[in-house]
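Question (not urgent): is this output format expected?
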Amino acid sequence: MNQTTPLTQNDCPAVIQHLQNGQSPQDHVRKPATEQLKMLEQRPGFTSLLLYLSQPSPQLQPSINQFAAIQLKNVIDRHWRRGQISEDERQSIKQNVLQRLAETNPRVAEQLLVVIAKIARNDAPHNWPSLFDTLRTQLTEPHAPFVLRTMNKVIKTLTTKRKASDRRVFHDLTQEMLPFFVNHWFQRQTELFQLLNQAGYSTGGNGGNGGGTTGGGGGAALAATLQSKSTACMYALKTVCRMISYGTPSLDTNSIVASFFQHVLAVVQSTLATVLNMSVKESQRRVAHQIPLYDLDGEDDSFKYSVEGRLRQMVEVSLRTVNRVRSNQPTAFTPYLQTFLNVTYSIVVDYYDRVQQYQELARRYTMPTLLACQFLSKCLTERDYEDPKSAGGTMVNQFLMGKSGGNGGGGGHPNNGSGSSGPSADTSSTTAPRVNVLFKIVVTTFLTLTAPDLMRWESDPEEYVLAQESVSMNSSLRATGQDLFLAMLEYDDHVMPQIFVTILNERETYFDQRANPSSNATPQGKRLCCLFVLGQCGVAWTIDGTCWPSCWPSCWPSCWPSCWPSCWPSC
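Got this back:
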């Protein structure tokens, strides 16, 4: 057969046979078919024929559609960038593949998504000017969630191009498209909040039920709508966040980014309250049904695609975007610094309140608190904020030394007056500097052992200690809390250690009361348990006249056996 003769739909039977044999488990059938398919890659029209055969058809089994889509992706990957596909065929593929976004076979749709992204990385936007306009025209269609997912995938692919010229192109693309997508996301976010309230979810405050029900009349339809809306909203938000993070748009107070920051506060505050309430309810359900409280291997895919999973991703991508934008443009971010310092602080305090109220039930979901700690830590160590006379430096200093206000609300704030709700029952709920509150929360909550930690420790203590050395701050609240702890100490190495020692002394009575009465652990031993992180990090100052680094090797082993079981968890 002439290798230059273009393939047409008349050649479908032969190609279908090769696709069928190419999936055979028998080597003598599969290998010749695979060789034939590789030879056909050199024929004009083969790529278009694969796209045609990936469509659902009564005459074709779904497995043929799926394998054709996989072959299409591989051919695009191998030959598109090298220019081995004719220009006419390239234009035909780019036009036709965008009409397939309503694909009903999810496995085929996944492959087509990758095909579009691979072509876009090479051609968009200049050699594929219709791409983004065509995607935008389909945002009102029923398959809009997949359209937004495609848009997010394309934008993500374009951000991986590292040449300066490519970055300028992406910057220009962001300037053009960002206003539309910010407004589109905000509209979807508003609709989602309304639907969540209709379904019985709480989207405000931290005291609502937060775990709404879609039962009753029309419940199944409402649940399906909620799933679709939350998916679309999440991918719209991801698209916007990628443009803001990598497109370096202006951060002027009258810019579209300023409008986005105002809207995203609703995501961080309202949506966060919802997902935290839902997480506590899930913990209660697990306890009631004697299911392990923690997923040590991570959440499964079914949770990822659930409404709660989508809401979690929206909260996390919002906080990550704020972190990244502040890191990329620290000086330009200054007008928004005070707002997000307060927001991230409130997230940390709210987490503490929930742990005091629900104990281990509130510890299943820590990612927002982890990201909030990262933001605070990076702000304290940011070079652009080192000068106390600069705008950013003044804001950070006023934030740390400013009064905590009424963030705790009751029941568990580290400074509220309830002696039973937490250590050190101060009565200065509106007078304590925020740095004091953060110290107390980090030491008494973030650096403690959780139930999974104790399980791993009891299984293999040596392995657990070694594993802690490689724990990432992107996955462990303790590691992130330790980083924030050190950032606060280093922020002012004269004042901060004194504050910490004062807090430590305030808690010694509390630790004595919490300790097992039968334990013969000494106060010094309990103090060493609480200060274990200092020994790891080499922090040095005098406590009660004793230099910490010099006493660590000699006194720690002597108190270890007696004080470990009783006082470490309480610390």
